[in-house]
From TrEMBL:
Principal localisation: mitochondrion
UniProt name for this protein: cysteine synthase
Domain of life where this protein originates: Eukaryota
Alphabetized UniProt keyword annotations: Membrane, Mitochondrion, Mitochondrion outer membrane, Transferase, Transmembrane, Transmembrane helix
Membrane topology designation: Single-pass membrane protein
EC numbers: 2.5.1.47
Length: 433
C-alpha cells in the first residue's frame, strides 16, 4: 500500500505541474488477446464510399461499434476502471460496486468490463432511453435504476443519484440485483466502508482526506466507486492516448479535419487535442443535435440565447431522438474540448435519421444515431470549406443501429414524433453548392 500512496502523491504532483502524461493501456492487437478487455480499441477506419465519392473528399469513420461492448465507451470504461485500480480506489473481487449515471452506452461498457474484473455495477439512467440498452444491461448482470429525466440541479437527476448511491454503498443493503447469479463473488466481509475511505472518483480525489498507509484494510474493503464519466479525466485520457494516436497512425498523418459530437466531451477533447498537437492546422468540428447548447457555446460563447433558454435550459436535457450526444451544461471534459473546437454544426433529427437510412441504402452500414449525426456534420463541413479533393475527414462511428430499434430505427416512433424519414434530405445536401 506504500506504493499506492506514492502513486497518489506522484499523481497529485503531476496534476499540479500539469505535466501529467497518461500511461498507455494495452488495447486490441491481432495476436491472441487476454479476455474481453483485449478486444477493446484499435478499431479500423472505414471509408464511407457513398459520401467520399459524392464529395471527392475522403470521409473515414472510426468503427467504434466493433468494440466488444458495442461502442466507443468501452475505451473510456476500461480506462476509468484501470485508473481507479491504479489509484487504489477499486480492487477486484472485493465485493466492490461501480456506480454510473449514463444514457446507456457507458453503462454497458462498464458492466462488461466489471464482469471480467470481479465488480458489480449499478447504472442509473433516464427512463426514456431506448429499451434495448436496458435489456443489455440487465443481461450483463447490472442493476438498473431508471428515473424521470431531471435537471442537473435536481438531486434526483441520474448522475447525481449515481454519486449519492456510490457514497452510501456499504450503508445500504437493499441493492436489487437483476440476476444475482451473475454477480461477483462476495468475500465474507460486511460491506461497511470506513469513513476514512472516501468514496470518490479519479477526477475528484481528495488526496488529503486519507492516508492509505494508515488504513490496514484498504486493499480488501468493498467500496462504492462513482465512475463519473462527465467529469473524469480518465475519459479524456482514453482518447488522448488511444483513439487519437490510432487515427494519426491509420491515416499516416494525412488527416485534415476531425468531426465528433459530444456527450461527456471526452472523445472530441481527447482526440481533438491529440490531433491538434501533431497537426495544428487540423480542423476540429462539433456535430451537435438540435436542442443541445454546445453549438451556441462554440459559435457565440454562451450556451443559450434568451429565446432558446425557455424550454431547454429548464430541463437541462436535450430533446432529440439522437442518443448519446448533445448536452446543455459544461463538464470537465467539455471544458477540455472548447479551446480546440474550431467550428460547430447543428444537426436536425430529420437529417440524422435521413443519413442513417442513406448509409444503409448505399454502404450497407447500419449505424447508431450519433454516428449519423457526425456524418451529416462531415458533409456540412466539407461543403462549408469548399473542399472538393485531396482532403481527409475523420469521424467517430460510435455505435451500431442495433442499439436503436425502439426509437431511432422505429419508423412508427418517428412518425409519432413527427420526424420525417426522407433520404432525399441527404441527396440534396450532397448536391448543394
Ligand atoms: N455516441 C454515443 C452512442 C454515446 O453513447 C456517446 C457517449 N455519451 C457519445 C457518442 C459521445 O461521446 P463523448 O461522451 O465522448 O462525448
Amino acid at each position: 500500500s506504500t506504493s499506492i500512496a506514492l502513486y497518489y502523491q506522484q499523481r497529485k504532483r503531476e496534476r499540479i505541474s500539469k505535466k501529467f502524461t497518461p500511461r498507455p493501456i494495452e488495447l486490441r492487437s491481432d495476436e491472441v488477446v487476454s479476455g474481453v478487455t483485449g478486444l477493446i480499441g484499435n478499431t479500423p477506419l472505414v471509408r464511407i464510399s457513398s459520401l467520399s465519392n459524392a464529395l471527392g473528399v475522403e470521409i473515414l469513420g472510426k468503427a467504434e461499434f466493433l468494440n466488444p461492448g458495442g461502442s466507443v465507451k468501452d475505451r473510456v470504461a476500461l480506462r476509468m476502471i484501470e485508473d481507479a485500480e491504479q489509484m487504489g480506489l477499486l480492487r477486484p473481487n472485493t465485493g466492490s460496486r461501480i456506480f454510473e449515471g449514463t444514457v446507456g452506452s457507458t453503462g454497458i461498457s462498464i458492466a462488461t468490463i466489471a464482469r471480467a474484473r470481479g465488480y458489480d455495477t449499478t447504472i442509473i439512467m433516464p427512463d426514456d432511453v431506448a429499451e434495448e440498452k436496458v435489456k443489455a444491461l440487465l443481461a450483463l448482470g447490472a442493476s438498473v435504476e431508471r428515473v424521470r429525466p431531471a435537471s442537473i440541479v435536481d438531486k434526483k437527476q441520474y448522475v447525481n443519484l449515481a454519486r449519492q448511491r456510490a457514497s452510501k454503498f456499504g450503508k445500504l443493503d437493499n441493492i436489487e440485483e437483476s440476476d444475482p447469479s451473475l454477480n461477483a463473488e462476495r468475500p465474507n466481509i460486511l460491506p461497511s466502508v470506513s469513513s476514512s475511505v472516501v468514496v470518490t472518483t479519479t477526477s475528484h480525489v481528495n488526496f488529503d482526506a486519507f492516508d492509505l498507509r494508515d488504513d490496514e484494510d484498504f486493499l480488501t474493503k468493498p467500496r462504492g466507486y462513482f465512475a463519473d464519466q462527465f467529469e473524469n479525466r480518465s475519459n479524456f485520457d482514453a482518447h488522448f492516448v488511444g483513439t487519437g494516436p490510432e487515427i494519426w497512425r491509420q491515416t499516416s498523418g494525412q488527416v485534415d479535419a476531425f468531426v465528433s459530437g459530444a456527450g461527456t466531451g471526452g472523445t472530441i477533447a481527447g482526440v481533438g487535442q491529440y490531433l491538434k498537437s501533431v497537426n495544428e492546422d487540423l480542423v476540429v468540428a462539433l456535430s451537435d443535435p438540435d436542442g443541445s447548447g454546445l453549438y451556441n457555446k462554440v459559435k457565440h460563447g454562451v450556451m443559450f440565447d434568451r429565446k432558446e433558454s425557455e424550454g431547454t435550459k429548464r430541463r437541462h436535457q436535450v430533446d432529440t431522438v439522437v442518443e448519446g450526444i448533445g448536452i446543455n451544461r459544461l463538464t470537465n471534459n467539455i471544458e477540455l474540448a472548447l479551446p480546440i473546437v474550431d467550428d460547430a454544426f447543428r444537426i436536425s433529427d430529420a437529417e440524422a435519421v435521413a443519413m442513417s437510412r442513406y448509409l444503409v441504402k448505399h454502404d450497407g452500414l447500419f449505424l447508431g444515431s450519433s454516428s449519423a449525426c457526425n456524418l451529416v456534420a462531415c458533409v456540412k463541413l466539407v461543403k462549408k470549406l469548399g473542399w472538393t479533393e485531396n482532403k481527409t475527414v475523420v469521424t467517430i462511428l460510435c455505435d451500431s443501429g442495433n442499439r436503436h430499434y425502439s426509437k431511432y430505427r422505429n419508423n412508427e416512433y418517428l412518425r409519432n414524433a413527427q420526424i420525417p424519414v426522407d433520404i432525399s434530405i441527404i441527396e440534396d445536401l450532397l448536391r448543394s453548392p
